[in-house]
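In the design runs reported in the main text, the only information available to the sequence generator was the tokenized backbone. The following block is the verbatim input for one such run; it is reproduced so that readers can re-run the procedure and compare outputs position by position.
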């Protein structure tokens, strides 16, 4: 084998041994690079005569072409191998079963809230929303529950590290009752122009559902729970109206006329007289038991005054009910905490 053939041969072997494109480029440099063997041979031709140069040059060129062809083949082979490896690594197994996307659903308490809003809207009640971080005045004082009044201890309240203009800490509202006063203020503002022009201000008829907070936690109490406030103030709204409205609501909500209501005397600073509302199913698994669902009463004149209204002209009732409780009764759930654990095995049942 002559020298050129053996160079081409060793180039082919070096290229074949190169496992990566980088190895291949290094191998190439040893033959056709600046200090490569072919390049060295070319440089060595200077001393030759014209005819010899021709034959020698043609021979070296042939060898060079053979090396370049081998190089191109190997480059292609390495690129193909790389592509194959990548395709293999990223392969999709289209025979795998798809991941099932479960349809979502409304939370059972949200369903109850929607139901409450629908029923009261149909009775002409507005639906209002308000802050969960509330001032001391709105949560207590405006509701005829002044600082140091023993009735404040009825509710174990969370306080927030922010003080109001009165220097008293804000609280996480322990009930939705502050919405009575807030809504009345909004209502007066909204109708101020008409009132100045001599028009009578429309009566107030509103519910205010939302989240409430108390330091309380067991199977029937959660530190975060829901309430829905109701308020109807007009020139002659009485306890009788409360009975009619609430009875109608309960029968519609539970889709049953087989339901008794009891108004049990109670105390709240912001209502006088006050009553706890109990319901009793006449049939079904809960039949015969009295179940407390709301606090209620005729709005106290001091509260009406704090609303900015004349208690001689505006009288009516308020109630605060527990949508969580209603949800438990409607679906037969016995542990309130299930509603707030977020366990889909539980929630799935309400889809
Ligand atoms: N706010 C009272 C509570 O949380 C309920 C209530 C509301 C009672 C309105 C009377 C009138 O217990």
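Verbatim output:
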């Amino acid at each position: 084998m002559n020298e050129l053939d053996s160079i081409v041969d060793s180039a082919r072997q070096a290229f074949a041994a190169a496992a990566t494109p980088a190895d291949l480029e290094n191998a190439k440099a040893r033959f056709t690079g600046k200090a490569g063997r072919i390049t060295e041979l070319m440089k060595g031709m200077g001393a030759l005569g014209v005819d010899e140069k021709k034959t020698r040059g043609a021979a070296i060129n042939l060898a060079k072409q053979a090396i370049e062809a081998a190089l191109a083949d190997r480059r292609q082979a390495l690129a193909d191998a790389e592509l194959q490896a990548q395709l293999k690594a990223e392969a999709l197994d289209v025979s795998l079963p798809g991941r099932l996307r479960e349809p979502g659903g409304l939370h059972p308490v949200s369903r109850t809230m929607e139901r409450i809003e629908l029923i009261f809207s149909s009775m002409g009640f507005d639906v209002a929303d308000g802050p969960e971080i509330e001032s001391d005045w709105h949560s207590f004082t405006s509701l005829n529950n002044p600082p140091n009044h023993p009735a404040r201890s009825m509710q174990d309240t969370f306080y927030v590290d922010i003080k109001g203009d009165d220097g008293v800490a804000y609280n996480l509202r322990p009930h939705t009752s502050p919405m009575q006063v807030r809504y009345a203020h909004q209502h007066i503002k909204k109708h101020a122009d008409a009132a100045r022009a001599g028009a009578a201000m429309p009566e107030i008829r509103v519910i205010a559902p939302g989240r409430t907070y108390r330091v309380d936690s067991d199977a029937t109490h959660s530190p975060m729970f829901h309430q829905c406030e109701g308020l109807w103030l007009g020139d002659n709204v009485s306890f009788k109206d409360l009975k009619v409205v609430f009875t109608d609501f309960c029968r519609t909500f539970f889709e049953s006329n087989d339901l008794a209501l009891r108004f049990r005397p109670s105390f709240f600073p912001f209502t006088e007289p006050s009553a706890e509302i109990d319901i009793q199913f006449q049939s079904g698994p809960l039949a015969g038991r009295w179940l407390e669902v709301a606090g209620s009463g005729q709005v106290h004149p001091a509260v009406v005054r704090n609303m900015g209204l004349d208690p001689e002209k505006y009288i009516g009732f308020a109630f605060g009910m527990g949508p969580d409780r209603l949800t438990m009764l409607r679906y037969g759930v016995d542990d309130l905490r299930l509603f707030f654990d977020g366990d889909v095995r539980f929630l799935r049942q309400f889809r």
